[in-house]
Amino acid sequence: MKTAYVNGKVYLGKNRFAQAFVVENDLFKAVGSTKAISQIKVDTTVDLQQNLVIAGLNDSHIHFRMAALNLLNLDLTKITSLKAIISESKKYIKKHGLSAKKMLWAEGWDEALLTDCNRHLTRFDLDQISTTVPIYFTRACRHMIVCNTPALKQMKMFTKNFKSEFGGIIDHDEQNYPNGVLREGATVYARKMYTPPSLDEQIKIYQKMMTKLNELGVTSVHACDLTDENIENHYQVYEEACKRDLLTLKFYHQIWTSSPEKVHLFFSAFKKLQKKPQHEFNRLAHLKIFADGSVGARTAALQDAYADEDDNHGFLVYDDQKLDDVVKKATSENISIVCHALGDVAINQILDIFLKYDQTKKNPLRHGIVHCLITDPKTIQRIKKQNIVVYAQPCLYDSSMLFLKKRLGKKRFANCLTFKSFLDNHIKLAFGTDAPISDHNPWPNLYFAISRIDLTNQPRLGSTPEQKISLWQALDAYTTGSAYGSFEEKIKGQIKKNYKADFAILNQDIFSLKKLADLKKTKALNTYVNGKLVYQQ
């Protein structure tokens, strides 16, 4: 099947546009003017009606499974007071008939957004919701889960001086009982309690989430979902959906481990999954590890102490030897690593060990750093010289701006989210959302990178306007940058001859907006994956 798309504005790269293109089966076969394309013999012609067409967006780091399952759970991301959290939770419990045998699981609370509670939640807050229903609330950063007393008892950890066998931190009250706050590795206790829906139910909710992304022009994602003991089980859902020809996104799996003690589970499962037939829509990718935690939970590893907690430097998840062992083994097996690192100590730790096992300094496995928050000029030069890929999420820090400067201080704050410095130094930059930690919508993400203004129109990054990037740079980070991260930059991410026909026809010309803030209103009219229409407004 050969189809011509004519009379449009087709984005090709910086200041470059065409009017038309031809798709044959799953590939772009010609790109040019409407006049030139109209001379090619085709089976059918589509009039683009002067609408803008871009290559399909590619989210470089998204917890797709979590985002999908969150559609079934109580959403706390938009709630702005503890009082409202308690009220909405009680309504949810009543509506869904929850009891001591059926937990309440909710996602996305952030104390920075709560007008009546300028601190982390604890079991004492959640006990106000229910003293019978086990309650588990995941903080927006996902590096902290807070539980009520019934949940702590359900996990058999409501005893004095209880210590985590999975690492991380368990906070305690004045009587030395857990106060409900679980950080980093300790969150495993809570995650083990979650019971997922059936396979068919999961596929159904995946389809709903795929549609939500398709309608925004997203055609590919680097999904960070398969983890620890559940790597093969979670992969099965994608595999079955792929067999049923239900996938409308191309998935590239970042397989993550929750702690150093769990890494062996990755290597065991990865070998098994490698033996399965790989499909364009369902591919294995990287090993994803954690070097540190989050700034919100004060667990990101910093050289100097937190500005608002002067005895706390955060902490490293791995000591140098354990991290060395993991990188050495992965490299010897030609497995790429993407490493979560926000703090300056964590970023430089992983850079040291990446360098040790890459004497070429060309990074042939395309190792990367996810988030890469605090980068001074010296660190930026290290990233450049080692050719490390940076997986960044501009809008992830929208709510973080409320406390980031307070946590880090003015000097370190100025070295956060240095997108322009990355690009000026020719560092490979791939944008994503980290949903459901932030919203899955790519357009506010792009807006934030371009404007350095958060979604409430407050220039909280006004101290670093020099890190603004252009629209075309941001768009390329969401397309060609992400394609580079999956070794697909020669077949995907551009509207170009013999590239995969993944593209979106947009509802507005984002290059001609009178108000930049209108960028956030962008959606797709139609979205195509491999030349097939997967979404129509």
Automatic annotation (TrEMBL):
SUPFAM superfamilies: Composite domain of metallo-dependent hydrolases (SSF51338), Metallo-dependent hydrolases (SSF51556). GO terms for molecular function: hydrolase activity, acting on carbon-nitrogen (but not peptide) bonds. Residues 45-535 form the Amidohydrolase domain. It comes from the Bacteria. InterPro entries: Amidohydro_3, Metal-dep_hydrolase_composite, Metal_Hydrolase, YtcJ-like. This is Amidohydrolase 3 domain-containing protein.
